[in-house]
Amino acid sequence: MQAAIETTLSLGMLIAIPILIAALGEAISERAGVLNIGLEGVMEWGALVGFIAVTSFQSLVVGFTAALMIGVIFGLVVAILTVSLHANQFYTGIVLWIFSLGVTGFIHRMGFWHASTLDTSPLDVVIPPFDRIPILGPVLFRTNAMTYVALVLTLMVWVLFEKTRAGLWIKAAGHRPEALDTVGVSVVRVRYLCVVMCSVLAAIAGAHISLIATGLYYSAGFFEGIVAGRGWIAIILVNFGSWRPLRILFGAILIGASWALQIRLQTLLPGYPVHVFLMLPYVVALMFLFLGRVSFPEALGRAYVRQR
Amino acid sequence: MAAFEAESQATSGGAEEIEVSRPGSEASRYLPLGYLALSLLLSYGVIGLVVWSLGLDVTGFFKDMFLYPLTTQSGLSTMLRRISPILLSSLTLAFAFRIGFWNVGSPGQLMVGMIAGTWVAIHLQGLPWFLHVGLTLTTGFGAGALLGLILAYAKFHFGVNEVLLSLLLNFVSQYSVTALLYGPMQGRPLLPYTAPILPSAELPRFFGRVHVGVLLAITLVLITVAVIRYTRFGYMMRVMGSSMAAARAAGIDVVRVGTIAVCVSAGFSGLAGVMEVTGVYGYGFDTIVQGIGFYGMISAFIAFGRLGYLIPAAVITSMVLSTGELVKAYSKVLPSQTPQLLLGLIAFGLLLTTALGQRASR
What we know:
The complex is a heterodimer of chains A (308) and B (362).
Chain A: H1 2-31, H2 39-57, H3 60-84, H4 89-110, E1 124-126, H5 136-141, E2 142-144, H6 145-163, H7 165-175, H8 177-182, H9 187-213, H10 230-240, H11 245-268, H12 275-278, H13 280-291
Antiparallel strand pairs in A: 1-2
Helix pairs in contact in A: 1-6, 1-7, 1-9, 1-10, 1-11, 2-3, 2-4, 2-9, 2-10, 3-9, 6-7, 10-11, 10-13, 11-13
Chain B: H1 2-12, H2 25-28, H3 31-53, H4 58-71, H5 73-97, H6 106-123, H7 129-158, H8 162-182, E1 205-206, E2 210-211, H9 212-230, H10 232-242, H11 244-249, H12 254-281, H13 292-302, H14 310-321, H15 323-329, H16 338-360
Antiparallel strand pairs in B: 1-2
Helix pairs in contact in B: 3-16, 4-5, 5-9, 5-12, 5-13, 5-14, 6-7, 6-8, 6-12, 6-13, 7-8, 7-12, 9-10, 10-12, 13-14, 13-16
C-alpha cells in the first residue's frame, strides 16, 4: 500500500512540474496586467522545438535552450500584439493557440524525427540516504533534475514578488499602471519583460512535457496536441492560487497527484473505458476554477493607454 | 474585428461603447476585406513555399487546390456538406459574442449534441420520419444548450471565466462521449462506433452527401441575423454587447437574456454535431467532429465576428479544408495537417493585420 502511494505521488510530482513552471510564468504575466491566454500554444511550440532539437543534437541542454529561444520569439509576438498594438488579449491568445496547434502538427509531420533516440536518464536524480524516507523520500529525492529547477523557480518568483523593487513594479503595472508611469518607470517595458518571461517559462514547460513528463506514462516524443490542456490548467491554477507562487505550487501538486492517480486507476480497475479516468485532472481543475478568486489585478486584460 | 476589439473592454468592465464606428467610413468599410486578402496571401504564400521547396509543381498545385472543390463532383459535394457544421459552430462563437461572451466550447458541444441525438436516432422506433428527425435534431440542440446552461450559470452566478470553463468542458465532454462510445453506446465490437441510426431519422440528401442540414444551417444564420437586428430580444443583446453596465441601468434582465443567448449559441453546435450523424455518416464515432469546432472558430474570425459575414466565411473555410482531400493526391509529400496549417496562418494573419490596422487608425 505504501509503495503504491509512493509511486503515485512521485509520478504526480513529476507530472506537476511542467504545469507549475507554466503557471509561474502566467502569474508573472498576469501580475503585470497581461492575460496570456495563448499559454497552451507556447507550450505546444516548446514541446515541438525541444523535441526536434534533442533528437537532432542529442543534447538535453540544446533542447531546453531551443525551447527558451522559441519562448522569447513567441513572447515578443504576444507582447507586440497585446502591449503595443492593444489587441484584445482573449482574441490574441485563442488565435495564437489555434495557430500553434495547426502549425506544430504540420511541422512535426513534415520531418522524420524519431523518438527512439531520446534519452533523458542523465536528468534522473537519486539522493541516497534521503530517498528511503517513507512517502516524502521518493517524491523529493528520487526524481528529476527539473523538479529542483522548478522548486527553486517557485522560490525565486516568490522573492521577486515579495522582496524586490522589480516585483513592486510588476504588481503596479498590473494594478495601477498610471501610478507606475508617474514614478517614471515604463509600463510598456515592464509588461514586455513579463510577457517574454512568461512565454519562456511556458516553452520550457512544453519541452518538459515532450521530453520528460509524457515519457513517464506513455513514450517521450511529440504528437499533435501533446500539451492536452495543461496550459489552461496552469492559467486556472494562477487564479486558484491568487497569483501567489507557493499556493500555485500547492495547486500544481494536487493536479499532478490526480493525474498520476488517474494513470494508476487505469490499471487498478480494468474493464472500464480509460476515458472515464482520463478526465479526472480536468474535473479537479474544474473545481479549482470555481474555487478561484474573482478579484483580479485591476488592470488585468486591459492595454495601458497613456493619458495625454 | 471591430466587434472583437471592442469586447475586450466589455469583459474587463470598463467599457462605454462597442460599435467602434470609424470616421471616413467609405474607405474603412472595405478594410476588413483587405485584411482578409493579406491573410490569405500570407497563408497561401507559405504553403506555396513549402510546395516549391519540396520540388513540386507550384502552379499545378494551386490550380488543383482551387479547381478541385469547385469543379469535381466529389470535391464540390464534400465542400458543400462541410458548410453545415462549420457555419453552425462559427455561429456558436459569433452569436454568444454578440453579448461579449466567449463561448469557445464548440468542440465539446458538438460531441455532446452528437451523442445525445444519436441515441434518439437509434432507439426511438416506429415514429414517422418528420417526428423522428425533429426529435433527433431537437435533442442534439438541447444537449448542446445544456452545456451552454452550465457556462452561463457559472459565468453569471459565480463570475467564472467562460473561456477557461468552456475549454475544460471540451476535454470533459470529449472523454465522457468517448467513454460512452466504448461503453453503453458501443455498436461495433472493440471500436468507438455506435450502431447505425434508424432510416426514419436520416436527413434527406441531394447531390452526393450534401444534406438538408446545410440549408437548415444557412436558414438559422439568416434567422439569427434578423432576430438580432429587428427584435426586442436582439436589441437587448446588442445593448449588453456594448455595455453590461448600460444594459443593467436600462433595466434589462442581464442574467436572463445572457443565459438564453448562451444556451442557444451552444445549442447550434449541438445541432451541428447530430446532423453530421443523421446527414452524413449514419452512425456516431469518436472523431466525427474532430477539428470542426476549431475550424468554426477560425471561420468566425474570418467573418470578423459578424453574423452577416458568417456564410461567405464558412464557404472560404470549407474551400480551404478541401485541401485536406487534395493532399491525399500529393500523399507522402504533404501531411494531412495541411489545412490546419493554412487556417492557422489565416487566423494569425487576420490577428496581425487588424491589430496593425487598428493601431494605424488610432
